[in-house]
Amino acid sequence: MRKKIAIIMTFMSLASLVLTGCHGRKGMEPFVIPEEFDEAAAYNITFWAKNDTNKTQTDIYKKAIADFNKLYPNIHVDLRLYTDYGKIYNDVITNISTGTTPNVCITYPDHIATYMTGDNTVVSLDELMNDQNFGFGGDKLAYDGPTKDEIVPEFLEECEIGDDHYALPYMRSTEACYINKTLVEKLGYDVPDVLTWDYVWEVSEKAMEKDEEGNFKVNGQKVLIPFIYKSTDNMMIQMLKQKNAPYSTSEGEIGIFNDTTRDLLYTVAKHAETGAFSTFKISSYPGNFLNAGQCIFAIDSTAGATWMGSHAPLSDIHESKKVEFETAVRPVPQFDTSNISMISQGPSICIFNKEDAGEVLASWLFAQYMLTDEVQMAYSETEGYVPVTTKARNNPEYIDYLNREGEDHSSHYEVKIQAAKLLLANSENTFVTPVFNGSASLRDASGQMIEEVTKARRRKITVDDAFIDKLYGNMRSLYRLDSATAAGRDASDKELGKLPSASRNLLIILLILWITIIIYITVSKQQRLNK
Amino acid sequence: MKKSIIALLITTMVAAAALAGCGKGDTDKKSEGVMTYSEYVQASLDTEVTIEAYVQAKQGWWENEGVGVATLYTQDKEGAYFLYNAQCTQEEYDKLAQGTKIKATGYKSEWSGEIEIADATFEIESGSYIAPAKDVTSLLGSDQIIDEQNKFVSFKDMTVEDAGNGKAFMYKYDDSGSQGDDLYFNVSVNGKSYTFTVESYLTGADTEVYKTVENLKIGDTVDMEGFLYWYEGVNPHITKVTVK
To answer: What is the CATH number of domain B134-243?
Structure first.
C-alpha cells in the first residue's frame, strides 16, 4: 500500500514538474541579429493581420505575401485575418502563455505594452532598424524599402515604448467628421473649415425640430440622430487633449477622473437627452444613418471613408433607403480652432521573439517589406489611410492618385481621398495617448463613460454629481484603474485573462496530491488502530 | 406498517407529478410585474421591460472586463425577445438548455432595426417551452414580416442563387473571410432574392448547418429554419438547411 502511494506521489510530483516546465516560458533570451540570413533554411512565419472587412485589403495582403515570397523563396508567410483588433489582442495573450505567438502581428502600441509583460516576448526593433545589412535601406535587402529618415517621424515615435521601438507603423488614419452639408445649409448654417464642439451641438439641437406629424422638419423623416460618434473612447480622449486636461501620464498614472471629464459628460448627457446625440454602440454605424439622410454629423475613422456619403462604394443599407446629399469632410470638432488636435490611429506591426534568430530575422524582413511603396500605396488607397513613409507619399503614382479625387466612385471616391488629405495636412496636429500596461483598459473606460451617460439620459435616468461619482467608482473598479498607477499592476491580472491550462492542471494535481496524502494518513492511522 | 409506507410513497409521487404538471400547464401565465408580449411590443424604446420567455438558442457567452455576458434568442407563445449581452455567469450559461424559462429585466433598445433587450439581468425559472418554426416564406418582402422579428421561423422551397462571387455562399458579407467566419448566401422565392446568414457564434464551422451551406450549389432548392434577426432589414440567422 505504502509503495503504491509512494509511486503515485512520485508520479504526481514528476507530472507537476513536467507541466510546470511546459509553461515555464517566463522569458526568452534577447534576440541577437545573425550575421547572415540563411537562404538555404526554410522559414514558415505566421502573420496575423487586420482588415476593415474590405476584400481589397485582404487581396493586398495576399499579393504582398506572394511578391515577398518571390524575393525570398525560403520564407513562407501564413496569413491569418481578423477584422477586430480586440480579437487579435485576446488571441495573442492566449498564445503568449503557450509560447505560440505569431511571428508578425498587426497591433496597437497599447496592446504591445501588455504583450511585453513576458521578458523579450516582443522584439525590440532598434538594432534591426539600424543594421547595416538588414536594417532600413540595408545593403542586403532584396527590395527597395524606405530608409529610417523616410518614415514619418511622428508615426515612428508612436511605436516607442520606454526607450525602444517595439513596432513599425504600418498605416495611419485619424477620425473625420463626415457632414451632410445639404442638411446643414437647409438649417441655415454654413460648414466652417474647422468645426467647434459648440457649433456641432447647436446645429444638432436645431435639427431636432419636428412638424405636426412628428416628422423632423429638416429631413422629413421619423428618424434623425443629428450627431453620432463611432468610437466614444476617441471622443473623450480628444476632448480632454483639446482641453489640456489630465488623461494619464506616460508612467501610467490615471488622471481621467477629473472635473473637466465631469463637465464633458454633462454636456454629452444634455444632448443625449434630447436625442441630438448617440453612439455606434447604442444606435448603429454612423454611416448607415448618414447615407439614409438620418444623421448630419457622423464621426468615424478616415479608414471608414468608403462607407460615407450618397455614392459610397460600400454600404450596409438598401439602395432604396439612400438619399442624395453633398458630403463635407472635416477634422473632428475642436475647442480651440487655432490649435487643432486629433488622434493618430491605425495599425502597427510588431515581431514576436522566437528561439531561432533566423526565424526572427525572416519576420523582420517581411515586416519591413510591408513599408515598401507598392504595399503602402496599395493599402492606403483602399480607405482614407495615409502611407507612413514619405517615400510612398512622394511617389508620383501616389500624388497622381490624390490628384484624381472624385474621378469615380470607387478608386478615386472623393470622400475617401478627402479623408486621406485631411490627415496628410494635419500629421503634425496628431497625437497618441501614453502607452503602458493598462492603457488599453483606460481607453475602454474613457469611452464607456460616454456610453453610460448617453444611455442613462435616453432612459430618463438622472445624471448628476452622484451619478458621475458612482460612474467614476464603477470605471475604476471594472477597468482596475483604482491604483495610483495602472502600470504597476501585476502581470497576472485580468489583462492576461484566465489562468493558462497548464497552470490550472498544476493546481488540480496539487489538490489531488493533498487529498492523496490525507487519505494515506487516514488509512495508516486506521491500520494502526486495527493492529 | 409496510403498507402505510408504500401508500405514503405513492401519494407523494402522485402529488409531485401533479405539481410538475401544473408547472408545465402554466407556461402562458406571466408572473406578477411581467409584461405580456403585446405590452412589450407597445413599450417605448429605452424603457425598462421585464419579460418571461424560454431560451430557444444561445448565440454566445464571453467576458467583458471580467463580467460574463450572454446573447440569447428567447420566445414565448406570443412572440420573441432577443437578449443582447445579458449579464450571465458561465455556470448560468451552461444551465440554459433549449426551452429553459427565464425572467429578464432590461431596457428595450434598437440597433440597426433589431429590437432587443439590452443591459439585462435574468433569473432561471421552472418551466419549459420549445417554439415550433413558423413558416414565413410568404411574408418575405412584405411589411408584415417585421412582426415576426426574432422568432424561430422556417422558409420553404427557396432557390440558392449566386452569392456574388460565382459560388453559392461567401465567408463574410464581402467574401473577405475564411472558414469559421459568418457565411452569407442568397436565396430566392417568387423572383426576389434575399441574403441569409449562418452566424458563426450561433452555429460555428463544426455544425451541420455550416457544413451544409458550405456544400450548397447554385440552383439547389432548400428548406431552412432559423431566427428572424434584423440588420437594416430582414437578416435571418439560419440554423438548419435541408437540400431537396
So the answer is: 2.40.50.140
